[in-house]
Specification:
Layout lengths: L2 H9 L8 E9 L5 E10 L4 E5 L6 H8 L7 E6 L2 E2 L5 H7 E4 L12 H11 L4 H14 L15 H13 L5 E5 L7 H13 L3 E5 L3 H7 L2 E6 L2 E7 H5 L2 H6 L21
Bound molecules: adenosine-5'-triphosphate.
The site of adenosine-5'-triphosphate (ATP) has 12 residues, from helix 2.
């Protein structure tokens, strides 16, 4: 290394910490049921990762550790370098935006605008900054024109988009989506895919919809019986018949995972 390159590299900022770092995470429910046995998972900033696995694999249990709803029995979780711990819980919950499967679990205010404003208002943001953040989040999900509507007057697909806005407005480090394509008609499913591809954000997507995982997530992780059974490029994992059968993963009849490449960006 020359003196000039050494000087330049010492001036470069260090790379950002991973968006998500899970190390040796183990968890047993209070009734003694062991749901996770030492999970290690690192997701770098900007990655989109599908979390796959059969019913009961431990996917929800893992997600509930990301924002401190559950506390590890062993191991640790960090979000952009900040440990998930009681003393950091408010900041952790801002950094981890979880979109639950049922948007009605997340929407409870009289209007869309108030639902999207709820999180930042609770964090002390007021006035023009609050209005600007809410407007920007609704624009991101294409729902600005519905701002004054009651959420329960919207379609399921529209409510899911508003639920995404309620977490985007917090400017999270990582967006965690639980079954984002469930109950969506084909057009809403595609529109949500386009929306997710337009976001410059780290994504962890829990899904049983394997074509959706393939389209949106270049990388997939298979969780099975509380351990990571595979971690790699989604097309490779979904083309591995033995792996798929061993973990009860099934593609739709006739679907060839080699016929689709993960999309990098929205059209
Ligand atoms: N509150 C609880 N008390 C005891 N055991 C639980 C509890 N919640 C989940 N479990 C068990 O922990 C294991 C993991 O469950 P989890 O909900 O994390 O699986 P999952 O991969 O999200 O499944 P699914 O695809 O069906 O949503 C399962 O065996 C489940 O029965």
């Amino acid at each position: 290394m020359t003196a000039a390159t050494a000087a330049r590299s010492s001036a470069e900022p260090p790379p950002p910490p991973p968006s998500l770092e899970v190390s040796g995470l183990a968890y047993a429910y209070p009734d003694g049921h062991q749901a996770l046995y030492g999970v290690d998972l690192t997701v770098e900033r900007g990655e989109r990762v599908a979390l796959l696995g059969p019913n009961g694999a431990g996917k929800t249990t893992l997600v509930l550790h990301l924002n401190g709803i559950l506390e590890p029995g062993a191991g640790s979780v960090a979000i952009a370098g900040l440990p998930v711990a009681k003393r950091h819980l408010a900041e952790i919950r801002r950094r981890v935006g979880i979109v639950f499967q049922d948007p009605d679990d997340q929407l409870f205010m009289p209007t869309v605008r108030e639902d999207v404003a709820f999180g930042p208002a609770a964090a002390g943001i007021r006035g023009p900054e609050l209005a600007a953040r809410v407007g920007a989040a609704l624009d991101q999900v294409g729902m600005a024109e519905y701002a004054d509507r009651p959420p329960h007057h919207l379609s399921f697909g529209q409510r899911r988009r508003v639920a995404v806005a309620t977490v985007l407005v917090m400017e999270p480090e990582i967006l965690v989506l639980d079954e984002p394509s469930s109950n969506l008609d084909p057009a809403s499913r595609r529109e949500l895919a386009d929306l997710l591809l337009s976001l410059d954000i780290t994504v962890l997507m829990v899904t049983h919809d394997l074509p959706y995982a393939l389209e949106l997530c270049p990388r997939a992780v298979v969780l099975s019986e509380g351990v990571i059974a595979a971690d790699g490029p989604t097309p490779e994992l979904l083309s591995d018949g033995e792996l798929m059968a061993a973990h009860r993963l099934e593609l739709p009849f006739g679907f060839d995972p080699r016929s689709v490449s993960p999309r990098r960006t929205a059209p």
